[in-house]
Model the fold of this input.
Amino acid sequence: MAPILQVRDLKKIYDGGFEALKGVTLDIEEGEIIALLGPNGAGKTTLISTLCGITVPTSGSATVGGHDIQTDYRAARSMIGLVPQEISLEPFEKVINTVRLTRGLFGKRRNDAYLDEVLGKLSLLDKRNQPTKELSGGMKRRVLIAKALSHEPRVLFLDEPTAGVDVALRKDMWEVVAELKKSGVTIILTTHYIEEAEAIADRIAVINKGEILLVEETATLMARLGRKRLTIELREPIQSVPETLSAYDLELSEGGTDLTYTYDTHQEKTGITGLLAELSAAGLKLRDISTRQDSLEEIFVGLVQEGAA
Done:
């Protein structure tokens, strides 16, 4: 089965010569959640705007469910739901009417039973007759999602859906996204919150300066690029790392009580056994040892820095 979204060598060059997208190629499978990560100005919103028909690409192609975004625009756009960054709702209109209007704009017949089902999944059913101005920020974002789902799309774009939302509401939104995936909706998520991608995305695409640096399953990316750090707590502080340990590139903490050793778990030998023996030979006594793996944020920063080099 072909991917539900196929992007081939997509480019966008604005007047003045700025190249926002530099030949993006990407396949997204039906029913998956893919997180698009990148710093400000990386091209995330331009890519989404282009795929949704808001911006016209300079060259390249993209299809949604087999429909070309330019030559078969209406069919392609009808398969897409878009939740923008900005909250823009008619403040005095009821929630249900707001959602009905969006459904109508896509030429869909009125179906309150379906809309009530959507509102129920988003914990908005008891708010259906309230003016949107009476809702909290988190609830307004849910209304945006309801609007995006009103015409029964198969692909949902979430552009910074939890921006400005507190931690509790953010995690609540993650549950909403997980439920949408269960119903078969394909989700493309842009976010500045690395933990968001790590928590809910099946795959991660890293974009910088208009180019996709990599696309990989979240767990595989963590395993492939994540390094482990061994922290050695000493019984007595030291002023500097002994010369005999220079081969291990140890990092000494400011107080002189902790040594940090970074190693790759995929190497045949981690060097830990030799390090511990050398520590003992140097007369250093250990209080404790702990390990941790790099977070996705640390991996992401490293990838962007490499791409900028």
